[in-house]
Each structure stands twice: as structure tokens, then as C-alpha cells.
Design a protein that fits this description.
By secondary structure, the chain is an alpha/beta fold. The chain has 2 domains: 341 residues, Alkaline Phosphatase, subunit A (3-Layer(aba) Sandwich); 66 residues, Diphtheria Toxin Repressor, domain 2, CATH 1.10.60.40. Helices cover 41% and strands 15% of the residues. The strands form 3 sheets. A 10-stranded mixed sheet has the order 5-6-4-3-7-1-8-13-2-14, sandwiched between helices. The two termini are 26 Å apart.
Length: 429
């Protein structure tokens, strides 16, 4: 019935977008795992403590509605693949599906439709570029885990004889430079510029182009480059704006989800910040190019984040801001250190209490000190900041929908994730 609902939804929105309403360009941004608690937490995280008022964020400035995320499966809780399939095609499917329906038959995506209409297309992500969300816009596969086959589709899934994506920026070198198939060489033979050095990104001046900047995914923003998505977004918009027939680009804040899975709040806020800065760039682009639509949403929420925990009516953002490394490398440094307090002070701006020190010391003396410290480091930070988590998986809460620019009002109110796609598809057709 859920798949039928998606088809009915498509009919409801048929004719919704008139030629005068259709934007020339579409910027679609997906915060993977970014449920409402994440955007709320980011507002408080970013607040200026010297002012009485809580300052709004870029998320607040473009909020339009909410969306349901359930898949066409035996659960209410979606994974990224099923949700991305819904967000890219307007068709609900099973968890793990990459742009195929519940019968594992390929479904048309809005990126494919845009390419067929002569628009320039792009995919940008901080995960490997063939991960579930970007994959569901330009590939078709029964399983999100078939990374090599998905990468192959970026060459083999031709639209009117052309490769589906004109600009690809993200990670995933290992999937494109394989012994069985050198995809990067095939891209170059198709006229694509190809780079692997992130610092060389300014050298990309024309399309088509392929930039793969990590073996798999980028390091977390907190650990290395805090603005890598912002930089890629800026480059993508700079390249895409030079096209004559308009463009469609999907930009994913991929690792908000991974921080949620890890229950690592400092990690999550750093990813939210990079995504927020990328949205701000896109919003500014719309201001300069009013014929553009910006839509931002999440595929689902991750971790069951709560702002406040342990029965206390408080959430300490200073604690989170004082953590300058994600939990795993911090745990590794503690495992190798002879002095726990000294190693802690090199990555965290607040001191351990005697109880917290003993907690980490006990973990260090366990049979697997790095794993034990990884668990206890997060426990110390979460308790010190009064951050709560209910799961290391996804949750089924509705997610927010943000929109700005031409016809943004179409995304107001309560809707299904398939509705978001079907409205955008009507603009592309």
C-alpha cells in the first residue's frame, strides 16, 4: 500500500508545477541522519552567550515543514538507501534499495530526468560518492552494499547516450580505481577532469569533472578539515552556474549520521556546522540567482539525540565546544599515553574530575583498552554535557523540510518524503 500511495502522490502533484513556477536550477541538500533534535541542538550550540536572545541559524531561516520517512518494508524505521530512493524518485522501497522499487525494478530518479532534459547534474558528498544517498540518484541496485556495481553505474547507466552525472565530488577512490576495472581512466576518456588532491580543487575549472579525495569517506570534520563540504559546495555551484540549460545538484552532509550512530555529540555538531555553512552558500546563491530553488531535508534521524539528560534541565554547550577531537582518535591517544590527564588535555579544554579519571583509567586497564576507552570517552562527554541518546541506530521520527527560492512555498506543511521528490520532479519535467 505504501508504494501505491507514492504513485497516488505523484498523480496528486501532476500539473502542480506550471512553467512559470518551475525554477531553472535545483539545489537539493540532504543532511543524513539530521533529525529535528540535531538542528535544535545546533541552534543552542551556536548561540552567543553574551546575548540574552537565542540567535536563529540558517536552518531556522528557511524552515518550511515536516516529512514522514517510513519505508515500504516491514518496519517504520528507514535506512538511508530506502529514504534516498524515496527522496530521489518519489517511490518508497525496502531498506537497502538503491533506486529500485520493492520488486527490485529500477525507478527513474530526478537526476536522471534532469539529465534527460538537458540540465547539468552533480553529486557532492563527504562519504564515498557511491554511498547510499548519492547512489540513489544515479545508480540502480538491489543492495546498497554493492559498492563496485554502484560505481560502475556512474559510467554504465547512460542517459540519452551520456554519463548521468557531470560533476562528482566526494570520497571513494578504492571503488573507482580497482584491479578489475579502472573507472577513473574511463571517466578521463569521456573527457572528465580527475583529481584526488583536495587542495587542487581550485584547479577544476570546467565540466565534466570527477574529484575523489579519500580512499573511502573523508575524515570527520572535527578531526581534520572542518569545512570540506562547504569548500566542495562552493566549487560545485561555481562550476554548475556556467551551464546554459540549468542544473540539478544533490549535496549531502553525509557524516551527521555517522556521528549519530557513534553517539558522539562533538562530532555531530562539527558536521552540522559544515552542513550549515554549505546551506548558507546555497542560500546566497539563490539570492544572486532568483531562478533557483533550494530544498534541504534529512533522510531520517539517527541516535535518538536528546538535548538534556539524567533528569537535569540543562545542556552544556561549552563542554561540547571544548572537545577538539572525535571519540575514536581521542580514545586511541589515551590508550597509547602514559599520562591520561595530559593526553586528555591535548584534545579537550576542560579537565577530568577524579571520578572521570578513574573511569578512563579502569578502561585503559581492560583487555581491549582502545575499545573500552572509546565507549567511556563518549560516556564522560555525554554525561558532562547532559547529552542523551536512545539508540545507535536510526529512529522513525518525522524530519524537517527546508526550502528557499523559487516555488519554495510548495514544500510547506506536513508531507511524505515521496511528496518532496514528486514536487521537484514536476519542476524538472
Amino acid at each position: 500500500m505504501k508504494t501505491k500511495y507514492s504513485l497516488i502522490s505523484a498523480c496528486i502533484f501532476a500539473g502542480f508545477a506550471h512553467a512559470d513556477d518551475a525554477p531553472q536550477n535545483i539545489i537539493y541538500m540532504i543532511g543524513d541522519g539530521m533529525g529535528p533534535a540535531f538542528t535544535t541542538a545546533y541552534r543552542y550550540y551556536q548561540d552567543n552567550p553574551e546575548t540574552k536572545e537565542i540567535e536563529p541559524t540558517v536552518y531556522d531561516s528557511i524552515l518550511m515543514g515536516m516529512a514522514k520517512t517510513y519505508p515500504d518494508d516491514d518496519t517504520f524505521v528507514t535506512d538511508s538507501a530506502a529514504s534516498a530512493t524515496a527522496l530521489s524518485s518519489g517511490i518508497k522501497s525496502y531498506n537497502g534499495a538503491i533506486a529500485v522499487d520493492s520488486e527490485k525494478k529500477p525507478v527513474k530518479t530526478m537526476l536522471e530526468m534532469a539529465k534527460a532534459q538537458g540540465m547539468t547534474t552533480g553529486l557532492v558528498a563527504t562519504s564515498q560518492i557511491n554511498h547510499a544517498t548519492p547512489a540513489s540518484f544515479a545508480a540502480h541496485n538491489e543492495s546498497r552494499r554493492n559498492y563496485d556495481d554502484i560505481a560502475d553505474d556512474y559510467l554504465d547507466n547512460k542517459i540519452n547516450g551520456q554519463l548521468p552525472v557531470d560533476l562528482l565530488l566526494g570520497g571513494g577512490v578504492r571503488y573507482f580505481e580497482r584491479e578489475d576495472r579502472k573507472l577513473t581512466e574511463e571517466f578521463e576518456r569521456q573527457g572528465y577532469q580527475y583529481i584526488t588532491d583536495f587542495d587542487a580543487l581550485p584547479s577544476l575549472q570546467t565540466l565534466p569533472a570527477l574529484g575523489l579525495f579519500a580512499d573511502k569517506a573523508f575524515p570527520f570534520a572535527l578531526d581534520e578539515n572542518p569545512n570540506r563540504l562547504e569548500v566542495m559546495t562552493n566549487k560545485a555551484l561555481s562550476l554548475l552556474q556556467r551551464t546554459d540549460n540549468g542544473f540539478f545538484v544533490m549535496i549531502e552532509g553525509s557524516q551527521i549520521d555517522w556521528c549519530g550512530h557513534a553517539n558522539d555529540i562533538a562530532c555531530a555538531m562539527a558536521e552540522m556546522d559544515d552542513f550549515a555553512k554549505s546551506i548558507a552558500l546555497a542560500k546566497a546563491y539563490v539570492d544572486a540567482h532568483p531562478d533557483t530553488l533550494l530544498v534541504v531535508t534529512a533522510d531520517h534521524s539517527t541516535g535518538g539525540l536528546t538535548i538534556g539528560a539524567d533528569g537535569q534541565y540543562r545542556w552544556n554547550t561549552d563542554v561540547i565546544k571544548g572537545v577538539r577531537q572525535t571519540a575514536w582518535p581521542l580514545a586511541m591517544s589515551l590508550a597509547k599515553a602514559t599520562d591520561i590527564k595530559q593526553a586528555w588535555s591535548e584534545s579537550v579544554d576542560w579537565a577530568l574530575s577524579d571520578e572521570q579519571y578513574q573511569q578512563l583509567k579502569d578502561a585503559k586497564q581492560s583487555e581491549e583498552p582502545a575499545k573500552a576507552l572509546y565507549r567511556e570517552v563518549k560516556d564522560v562527554i555525554n554525561k558532562q554535557s547532559y547529552t542523551g541518546w536512545t539508540t545507535k541506530g536510526h529512529t522513525a521520527v518525522d524530519v524537517q523540510v527546508f526550502a528557499y527560492g523559487k516555488s519554495a512555498q510548495a514544500f510547506a506543511g506536513s508531507q511524505n518524503n515521496t511528496d518532496i521528490a514528486n514536487k521537484m520532479i514536476e519542476f524538472i519535467r
